[in-house]
Amino acid sequence: MNLAHIIDPHPADKVAIISRGRPTTYGTLRDQVAHVRGGLAKLGVGKGDRVVLLCSNGRYFVDVYLAALGLGAVTVPLNPASPAPEIEREVRTVGAKVVVVEPLAAHAWAQIDRVHLPTVEHVVATETGTVPGADSAFDDLLGTEQVAAIEVDDDDLAALIFTSGTAGSPRAAMLSHGNLMANLEQGRSTDGINEHDVVFGVLPVFHIFGLNVVLGLTLARGATVVLVQRFDPFTALETITERGITVIPGAPPLWLAFSHFDDAPADSFATVRLALTGAAKMPEEATRHLQQRFGLILREGYGLTEASPVVTSSAGLTPKVGSVGKVLAGMQVRLVDENGDDALEGDSGEIWVKGPNVFKGYLDEPEATARVLTADGWLRTGDIAVVDDDGYLYLVDRAKDLVIVSGFNVYPAEVEEVLMEHPDVLEVGVVGVPHPHTGEAVKAFVVLKPGATAHEDTLVSWCLDNLARYKCPAKILFVDQLPRNLSGKLLRRSLV
After folding, report:
1. Single pTM value for the model
2. Cα–Cα distance, 134 to 375 (Å, whole number)
3. Is the Cβ–Cβ distance between 141 and 127 less than 8 Å?
């Protein structure tokens, strides 16, 4: 087996990707990938070698990603817009042999002293002459003789994905060919992407959602993905119409942008049959607004890098607002209380996941791995959820984000949901802060809608009308924006 084989069974004349307006068929893609495989092999890349991709959504990423997998190498997608110190640290952490750099990352790469990266033997520029110090270009790889993909074992590493770092420094999660392929197969239990679909690919492919759902699942099904490098609501709607987009996977900020796009026609999503969201909790008010305004039924799911990534999905189900759907076939999920026992029916508990999609651990971090993987293979996600009588899962919050006020548990997401219901509020982030009398107190950071004039006292009173007193914010600060990572997750640790 080899994850790179996902592009093999599809008709040669079917369009696989559209990048910068240029369509590439599956036949052409297979041909290009085989040539790039030959080019990487000529640079000495073989099984187990690390290949870093500092590339955004485009054909360069797709070709190199699949080619490296085909050689049994380990792909390491990184954010090309990251600052130089972060790139240097991550490249050094994985012990990269080859780094592929696109122009967006050229400036940051030029600031890195290669002496600090002793394992890097080759730097490949996606476009000739754009990267200082590059010794090869993508066209050089493409111009070599084709090389066939090798077979690998299920447990052989396919990718190292740096987690979002919402709970400290990011770590490199080890995902095998078997992990990623298992999640693609588990996705077959839903009415998700099929061979007739055209998928809007704006989620970054260096993130697991974009990598194995948007890109991987699309190519595995023989569908078409339109790769988009930057999101803008106006141009996105143009692309949706012009390309006949049928599936849009997006993090909550994308859907919030659409919900507040007042000039968008009511039929903007007429071609869309499947609207997906995940990576963070979707505000229920916005979900309802999208349906009322555009007739768009948003289907929420849940996943994480360590699960390759999808655990639950609402695709193919009767959606329930606020739910992330049901567990995919082929994996087990438990809700576990603070004592390690299964939570009582109706009670909340930490989500534990077990299955062939669960990762192998964090690279060179056995202690961190042991904290999240039990001896018998259960992944402790740190996420708190409840399940209803129909098997639908509802996220409550992150275990690590729990605020304890006078001994009472407060889940920030619950407070955020109440504040989001206020007509003047656009976005909310809630954290716990030290308090001399209660141990911790609730603090809220609020982004108001344009033109809104709500005051702190107004919002505190709103909370008192809807929540127990100990759950209400002791302090509310108004800010212009909330800190989020590129997958849309709120970075609570950055709220100060």
Report:
1. 0.85
2. 44
3. no
